[in-house]
Amino acid sequence: MSELNGAQALIRTLVGAGVDVCFGNPGTSEMHFVAALDSVPQMRGVLGLYEGVVTGAADGYARIAGKPAATLLHLGPGMVNGLANMHNARRAFTPMVNVIGDHATYHKQYDAPLESDIEPLSEWTRGWTRRAKHPADVGADAAAAVAAAQDPPGRPANLILPADVSWGEGGQVADPVPPRSRKPVGDDVIAQVAEVLASGEPAALLIGGPACGPDGLRAASRIAVGTGAKAFVETFPARLERGAGLPNIERLGYLAEQVQYQLTGIKHLIVAGTDAPVSFFAYPGKPSDLVPEGATVHVLADREHDVIAALAALADRSAPDAEPQLAEANRPALPSGDLTPQNWVEVVGALLPEGAIISDESNTSGVLLPMATAGAPQHTVLTLTGGAIGQGLPVSTGSAVAAPDRPVLNLQADGSAMYTISALWTQARENLDVTTVILNNAAYAILRMEMQRTGADLSGPAAKALLDLSRPTMDFTKIAEGMGVPASRATTCEEFAEALRRAFDEPGPHLIDAIVPPLL
Amino acid sequence: MSELNGAQALIRTLVGAGVDVCFGNPGTSEMHFVAALDSVPQMRGVLGLYEGVVTGAADGYARIAGKPAATLLHLGPGMVNGLANMHNARRAFTPMVNVIGDHATYHKQYDAPLESDIEPLSEWTRGWTRRAKHPADVGADAAAAVAAAQDPPGRPANLILPADVSWGEGGQVADPVPPRSRKPVGDDVIAQVAEVLASGEPAALLIGGPACGPDGLRAASRIAVGTGAKAFVETFPARLERGAGLPNIERLGYLAEQVQYQLTGIKHLIVAGTDAPVSFFAYPGKPSDLVPEGATVHVLADREHDVIAALAALADRSAPDAEPQLAEANRPALPSGDLTPQNWVEVVGALLPEGAIISDESNTSGVLLPMATAGAPQHTVLTLTGGAIGQGLPVSTGSAVAAPDRPVLNLQADGSAMYTISALWTQARENLDVTTVILNNAAYAILRMEMQRTGADLSGPAAKALLDLSRPTMDFTKIAEGMGVPASRATTCEEFAEALRRAFDEPGPHLIDAIVPPLL
Question: 0.90 cut: is pTM over it?
Fold first, then answer.
C-alpha cells in the first residue's frame, strides 16, 4: 500500500506527464486535491474567480505551451460555468485535462443540493470522459486523460474525481502514456491534389489547425506562388503566426458575403487541417454552405493528419522552385485624432512589440486589424474559435502563464468582456504581463450588424434596448482598478498610443478603456 | 395563414399566459425574437450582460411574483452559462420558461462554430424540454411550457427555438394551459401523523417549499405549541417569510453537526413539503444521512402536495386550541466599533425596512443573521437553494423587477459575488431599488472552515493561495461604480449604518463594500 492518497497520486502523475499548471476554482469536495498541491511543488496552482476564467485560461495556456494544463472544477455546477470556454477549446482542438470533483461515491445517492449528473456535461464537450473509481487507479486514469487530451487533434479530457477517491489511501503514480502521432497523408492523396493544382482550373487552398504555424504558412505560400492557387487561412484559427518575415495569408471572412467574394470563380477548394467553410449563422434566403456552386472540395489533410508534412510534400511536388512570399517589415504611421474603428488598429500596428501574443476578441471593432499588423514584428494571434464570447480575457491570462517572457495583448470587445471580467484579478495576482484593450463602443455592435443580415426589424425601442450597452456606459478603468489592475482611458490616438507604450514598458497587467465608436 | 411570425406568436402566447417579463442575452439566432418584442409591448425585455444573471434574475422574479418569467438564451453556449442558476432554480422548484435559440433547422447539419446539442443540457436541469418544429405550433409549445413550468412543484421549462421557426410566417397564438393543482393530502395520512404526534415520543416537524409562507408557518407553530414537537424550516428555503408577527421557526443548520444537535433525541421526523435532511457534503467518517439513528421519517406532504392545507388540517386535528407563537417586534440596538461577523447583522436587524426582500448569499458571514432579524418588521428571505454560488446578485435583481415597491437587500459574500457581478449593471439600467452589501472578508472563508471538516491539511502555501482572495483584495466600490451603481465602503458599524440608511432612503441601486473579517 502506498502512502499517497488519490489526489497526491493524481497530481504526481500529471506532473510526470508534463502537466504542471492547474487553473482551478475548488470547493469542499476538492479540498484534498488542494491540500495535495503542497506535496507536489512542481504543480503550479492558479486561482480563477470563476470557472469560465479557469477553462479559458487552460485553453490559452495550451495554445501557447503546446501541452495541456489541468483545471480543477467543483462538481456539476462548477463545470457548467466552465463549459462555454470548453466549447471554444473544443473548436480550437486544444488539449486540456479537466479534473471535476464530485461527491463521495457513497454520498451521491442522497441527492444533496449540489448533486447533478456530470457525464452528460462531459459528453457535451465532445471530449474524453472517465469517472475515477479507486485511489489505486486514479494515477492511471490521469495518465490516460493526458494522452487522450493530446491524441490528435486534441480535446478536453474530463476526469471525474469523487471526493473519497481523492482522499482515499493507496494512490499509485502512473507512468506517462504517449499520445498517438498524427496520421501521415498518403502519397496518392498528395499526387491527386497536385494534379488538381496542375489542371489550370481556378483553385484555392484553405489551411487550418497546426498549418497556421510558420512551416505550414511557408508551404502554403509556396503552393500559391508556384501554382497560382489562392491561399486562405481558416476564419478562426486557434493559433496563427504572423508578421514581418512570415507569409501573410489572408483569413477567410466571418461574413458569408465576404467568403463568397473571396472564393469567387473557384473550381477546386483544397482543405488542409480544417473543414470546408460554412456560414456562422443561417440567414433567411442565404446559403449555409459557402463552397461556391460547382466547385469540388478536395481534402488534403483532415484534423488528425500531419498537415504540415502534407503541405510541404505538396509544395515540393507542385511548386518545387517556388519561394514563399514573406511579409516585409512595415508598420503604419501613428495616426492622430479621435479613435475610430479605422485608426485604433494602426496604433496597435505601430507599437506591437516583437514576440507579442494577441488574444483577439475585438469582434466588429477589429475587422481592420490584420491589415494594420501584417508587417509588424512576428507575433501570435489567438482567435475566438467557437464563437462563445468571454474567451479573450481568460485566454490572454493563460497564454501569459505559458509564456512569461512574451508581452500579451488582449483586444477585447466590451460586451464580451463582461462574461469573464474577473480574469483581471488573476492577472493581478499572478502579475501577468497582459495588456487588455477594451474596445468600448457601448453596444453589442455585432448584433446591430447581424440584425440587418437576418432581416429582423430592430428599430423599435424594446429591441434597441437589448443591443445597447449604454445607460449606463461601463467604466472599465474602475472595474479594472477594483480588481487590482492599473487602468487608463483613451479617446484619442495620442492617448491610446501613450497608454499602450506604458503598458508594454511596465511589467504586470494593464487595462486601457479605448472609446471607439461602433463600426456601423 | 396568420400574419404573425413564430416569435410574435410565441411572445403573445407568453403574455396571454401571464408571462410578461423576459430576461435575456440574445445573439444572432434570436434577432427575430428581439424584434418581435416591439410588436408586443406588454412583454418587458430586461437585458443581462451574462446568462447567469439572466437565469438567476428569472429565479428571483418568480420567487417573488409567484409566476414565471421567461429567459432568452443564445444557443447551447449561451445556455451553459445560465445552467448554474438554473440548478439553483431547480432546487428552489422555481417555475421558469427558458427560450433557447438554436440554429435554423437546415443549418444544424453544417456544424457551424456555435453548434452544440441542447437537449442534454436541458435534461441536466431536470426540467421540461421541447424543440419547436414549426411557426404554426410554437404558440402551443409556449403555452405548454408555461404550464409545465408551473405544474407542482415547479421547474425550468426549456423551449428550444430554431431561428427559422422564429422568423417563419404562420405563427398562431395559443390559449393559456392551466397548470395542474397541488395534490391533496389524504385524511388517512393526516390521521397517521396525528397519531405519531399524540404518542408522546419526541418528534420534530420539518417544513419546506410553500409551507415557509405565513399560513404554513402559523400551522407549524400551532402544531409545535400544541403537541410539544420541535419545528424546523428546511436549511435553504426558496422563500421564507419572517419578522415580527410571524412565527420564528428555526432553520435546520448547514453543518451536519448543527443538524445532529438540533435533532438530538428525536424519534419521529415529520417532513412536509421538503425532504429528510442530508449532509451538504460528505466528510470522512461522518454520516451523510442526518436523520438520527432509530428515528422514523413520516411524510406528511411531498413537494407536489398541497402542504399548506395539510399542515392546517394536521394543526386542527393535533392542536385544535393552540395559537401560533409569534415573534415580537424587537430590533437589536445599533452597535458601534469595527465591523465583525457578530455585529454587522445587528446593524441590518436595526435598520431593515418593512417589507424588505433579503437575497441571502452571505454564506459564513451571515450565520448570525436570523437571530438579529427575527423581530424586525416582516420581510422575505430568499436563500441559495442549490449551493451553486453566484445567485445572490441576480436573484435580488429579479426580485426587484417583480416587486418595484419593496426594498431589496442583497447580502453577498465576496467570492460568490464575482460569479455574476454584472447583475449590478442591470440594476443600474433598470434603476432597481437593490442594496447590495458585500461581506468582504477577502477569502473563500467557507472553504477554510470546510478544510478542517474534511480533514484536509491546507496549511501549505499552495493550498492557502487557492482559498485566499487577497493579493489583491477587491475594491467592490470601484467595480460597482464602473457599472453605474453608487457605492461606499464601511469598516465600522457607524459607517455601515449610515450607508445602509442612505441606500434604503434613496431609490435605485447601491452597493456597500463592508469589510468584515472572516468568522474563523
Answer: yes
